[in-house]
Design brief:
This protein has 1331 residues and is of the alpha+beta class. It contains 24 helices and 68 strands. The strands form 16 sheets. Strands 55-56-57-58-67-64-63-60-61 form a nine-stranded antiparallel β-sheet. The chain has a seven-stranded antiparallel β-sheet with strand order 10-18-17-20-15-12-13. It is globular. It is an enzyme of class 3 (hydrolase). One of its GO terms (cellular component) is beta-galactosidase complex. InterPro entries: B-gal_small/dom_5, Bact_Beta-galactosidase, Beta-gal/glucu_dom_sf, Gal_mutarotase_sf_dom, Galactose-bd-like_sf, GH, GH-type_carb-bd, Glyco_hydro_2. It catalyses: Hydrolysis of terminal non-reducing beta-D-galactose residues in beta-D-galactosides.
Length: 1331
Amino acid sequence: MEWFCKEEGMEVRFSNVDFSEFCSHEEFCYWSKVDPEDEDAWEAWVTWQSRRIRRLRLNEIYRFLASQGRMEEATDLLHEMTQEGPLSQLARNVGASEEFIHKGWTFRLDPGPYCLYTRLHVGETIFDKESGKMVREYDDLFCNLQSDCAYLDYFKDTELSLVCEKNWPVQDTSRKYKDLHPDTLKYAQKDTLSVKEIAPFYMRQRKAPIPSTTYAAYLIRKMKVAINISLFRSPADEVNRAISHNYRMAWEDPSFIKWQKRNAHVPWRSHDTIEGSLKYWCDRNNVKYSNAEHAVWNDDAVSAALESAAQWIKGLPFVRSLSGYWRFLFTPSPSKVPLNFYECGFNDSNWDSLPVPSNWQMHGFDSPICTNTVYPFPMDPPFVPSENPTGCYRKNFRLPKEWRGRRILLHFEAADSAYFAWVNGVVVGYSQDGRLPAEFEITDYCHPLDSDKDNVLAVQVMRWSDGSYLEDQDHWWLSGIHRDVILLSKPQVFITDYFFIANLSEDLSGADLKVEVKLDSLKEKSGDVSSVAIEALLFESATLPDKLADELNSIPHSVVDMKIKPGDCGFNGHWLEGKLENPKLWSSEQPNLYTLVVVLKDSSGNVIECESCQVGIRKVALANKQMLVNGCPVVIKGVNRHEHHPRVGKTNIEACMIKDLVLMKQNNINAVKNSHYPQHPRWYELCDLFGVYVIDEPNIDTRGCFSHTHLIDDPVYGPHWISAILDRGSSMVERDKNHASIIAWSLGNDGYRNHISAMAEWIRERDPTRIIHHDGFGSATNLTDIVCPKYMRVEDIVRKANYVYEKRPLILSEYSHAMGNSNGNIDEYWDAIDSTFGLQGGFITDWVDQGLLKDFNGTMHWAYGGDFGDKSNTLNFCLNGIVWPDRTPHPAVHEVKYVYQPFKAVLLQDRIQIKNTHYFDTTEAFEFTWILQGDGTIISSGLLDVPITAPQAHYDIKLECSPWYTLWKTCEANEVYLTIITKQKYSSRSIKEGHIIASTQLSLPSDNASISHLIEMPKVSCVAKEVVGNIIVFSKKDAWEIKLNTKTGTIENLKVNGKTLLTKGISLCFYRALTDNDKGGRSKSYASKWKVASIDAKISTHLEDFSVKEQSDFCWQISTRLVAKNYGCTLMTIDNKYSIYSSGDIILEYHVIPKDDLPALPRIGVVFHVEKEFNMVSWYGRGPFECYPDRKSSAHVGVYEKTVMDMHVPYIVPSESGGRSDVRWVGLRNEDGMGLFASIYGGSPPMQISASYYGLEELDRSTHNHELVEGDDIEVHLDHKHMGVGGDDSWTPCVHSQFLIPPVAYSFSFRFCPIFPFSSLQEIFKSHLPQ
């Protein structure tokens, strides 16, 4: 198949390009919403792909020429790319493997057998003096990424060496790569290969991904210096010398990602007995909701982090924590690091003291930087700025004498971004990836245990490295040793890794168990395991505490003893097998765990060591459009979670992690996607315990590279990054593979990249028990087992789920962007998910606002991007969580809890149906109650007798037989609401007894909807009218006074019993303080359109007509015509009437006609200001928390009361906030009970209200909540219409159409009247005025 494209007068042909690997024709038609028969659209899309490929190829050549200083040739090439020159002719005419020589350069197109794209070879024609002939040296700029079995090690003076790993993920030549040259496997088994040794193979097998000497020389020239060492075999002193002189190469070479770092494995415990293993897990599992009370978010978090680090190794005799205060020196670049600072005798007495773990920016060194897609340094991969902030650490330690004769290992849980470590002046290792462990053996570098000398550990951490290009997540860039540092002691032969696999039978009644165990020994020979024995024991975790107490000094009976598989004599992996009948399965609802203990014994049966962990038995599988857990299509009710603490940054505290999980479980969240990197090991243990489904994600995010794929070595396509990317994915899997909570492996965040396919294949082969998740462009390819788009609209996910060719379930990787006042429309997503087969939930973005504590003029407040002097930042884009940094829930959490709730109550024709949507839990552990309300007042309540209802079953209650039926039918309320509440009956690990799990309010029909009483008016007028200049005063002696301005046509003041209520008159309002979602979309945003249309807080009304008429003895009527203007532009006309009654009531009737060319309006309503003393707000409507038209399902209708201060929602960036929806009436009163009443009137629908000390302009002006300045009064809004807040995302205008306010005519009425101490606000509302 051949495709052609034209661009800028040039046509290029690419042969054998397989676009179906990227997207099938059917999927393209679906996503683009075009007719499948429209071949023109398909060809246009392919043309676009070809154009992109062509641009990439030619730009690569251009950059290559320019990098070698051949600017004349580069300029010629640039000319050829756009003109009718020889290269254009080549592009038109050459076929596969044809070439063209132009000005000494040879260009050849060659189809790559496994690549998505055709390879392009560029070679220079050279005259060979010896042969007297012209020869060509080709330089492979594009290599076959998927057959990579080795990577390059650079040497000084352009000397090359190929270094192969025995366990390279894609070296399997027996399957996909069976047509590779047979020497591939042979070479892959060798340690190193010289250039001469590899050359014959390279010439025969062009698929090998080995850059030429020319390209390597170019890299070395650009990097100025190379390390003259072998990365895997060099003596440590050579490394020291190279690093001391110039070690820039190490953190700017994507092929150099680690040195002397041990292979990834599960966390080690290194127990000495089986009993010790079991007691350790009894203590470690003793956590519950009450532990969350110890979470701290201020300066106390520094010591809490150190306490957690110490607690996590408690009970482990061969583990020591090095966490604590270290000597620390911050330098602006590696070149400023003191010479030989790692030597034992170096004087660090003038250095600072820094807690470890910590991020140094959180302790006054350097500045935090918050970005989204833009890198915080110049884009030039793999290079980083020479001004690269660097931290030097030193710590003294001694080893316990009990560790004599054992091997010593140094373990870093994580440090950001790249670092070297020395022990006693000897470099022991190097590592990258700031979210995964690194481990180095230091046995030979420590002082003897009987020595009086302190060992000195020194670490140098660089803020930026080539690995930073892979870590472009939308969060804070923070540096340093931010997780624990520990010392471990292991016997000479020890368990280095183990993998628990449970294969459940079809009916889930039994499980075949397997454990793969790997050993490490300096003396062990391949295949010889006769001197040691391996056992694996499984214990039921829930019963361990009681069994250990009952069986003192003995080992409880295990439920399974697994034995070595017959015939197994493997070197690296030993398989143990066993069988368990009727296992207790793990799920989010029932997180049953077992304790696995792997025991290594000597030939006499003595225990050498034990390793242990918690495991769960569960089955994750795929069916038609469904992801199944234990055979059930569980629904993912999830959030994306960053590791974030407002005081200590990326450092973890156990109580704070528990706080997150308790809040999640209390609000019906059952799943977490680790965004966008592996998190602390303890997090996974807690997810296992609390029952939370996890998608584990590697520390890979290259979104900032998407617009820079022309670079000669970018991380998206550059072949030299494959080892780093695969290492990050495989290391995550190896560390976390035993956690039951992990149901899926992610391939990284944001976008499709060539290297990811190799990672997907490796993970599938390594762990077939889980599924693979990949979002971005990957969600439309076969890389992922689930379709997992981001921010897809409701109608699109429904259409995708109904697409006949799509057999995978759809789970939203990210949705409902929670930036500021957001999360509108989330109920629409869940209406679709609950009713559409193939939709299985999603993950809200994000869990927590990533605000940091900062001192603002002596007071600590939340800070965001730009507040630390960071010039490259995304401002408050990091504030997109549903909880504040201190985990106080946003109002939107109520909506999340509601749509996620597991019990649904539905009013049918003659009954109420209660459905248990759990998949494993019955209703046995829950209590049901009911509350009957009439006009917002509780009539009665009681327990609801619901029998034990099975999962996915329902219970029906006939209305006539219900306990509230008689009360409902006999009550005189206009509105009757029934609320069904589900509570936790017994305390669990995560939820306290009595906690409300679900609450649904149902509107019951009422026969009294129109019942009201008429206010009696005096037959003789008692209303006085007085005109003073432009003011007309209407009053009733010793009762009330109303002032009306004849120049503006507005009510200017209102007094009750001589007390002033209004400080500013009642006027129309059409604008709101901008939310983050209002601003999203640049020129297409609502904010931009409002600005163009002159819609802002300065809109004013101008009087065109005014009249006063006495309607009757008890009523005066004022009619006005107003024009709303701003900046000289007429926006709308308003006809309104004020009816003033002798009772003190005022009826305001409005008819608003906007210009039809206006955009959707923010609001239509009135605004007025009252004295500060009237700060008690009562209302009958939805509440008690903030809600808006598109986020109100969880807010029940009732009568509520709050202070004005409590009405305020302190979003970190101020915006429209504090609103309440569907309000019938509102009252503002002072301590004496005096005040002002306002309500809807006539046929007007319920209104949106707010009351705040902060006016519109103040909210718009302030960039931080703490900057807000209280006004001299209270600003009150009564809105006939208020636009939704949106939330599908925050970068496009995405308020759903039904929640927009189009520029059409609107009519509405409000009623105002004074409140006296004896007034009943509901009775006022139920009364009506004579016509």
